[in-house]
Design brief:
The protein has one domain: Winged helix-like DNA-binding domain superfamily/Winged helix DNA-binding domain (Arc Repressor Mutant, subunit A, Orthogonal Bundle). The chain is 56% helix and 10% strand. It contains five helices and three strands, in the order ααβααββα. Strand 2 and strand 3 form a beta hairpin. Helix 1 runs antiparallel to helix 5 and helix 2 crosses helix 4. The longest helix is centred in the C-terminal third of the chain and has 17 residues.
Length: 117
Amino acid sequence: MAHKHKDIDDLYFRFLNLKRAVEDVTKLKTLDALEEEILNYIAKATLLGRTLNVTDLIHSDIASPVTVHKRLGNLKKLGYIHIEPVRGGYPAKAISLSEKAVRFFNELSSGLQSITR
């Protein structure tokens, strides 16, 4: 029996391969799915010009407050984010992407551009 879907566009699978390759180079594979989701959330806010603080993530419904704090601590320890006190905004702490995270997203974007041409 012949396969009916042999013409499926392989763009998605090329994307997955690219993502794995970039993860191997940047060592992003050390993150679990929730940490990756949090990192993507921070990156999207950064792209939109928003400054996130820890409270924003706690109220985002990504996970429970305890889990968010734990995952943020791990992301910071692994060097993907910076958490800094907000001047005059005690106890708020601003979250920003590190150069390591920016490099990951830039490499992924460049690869996406090359496979869609």
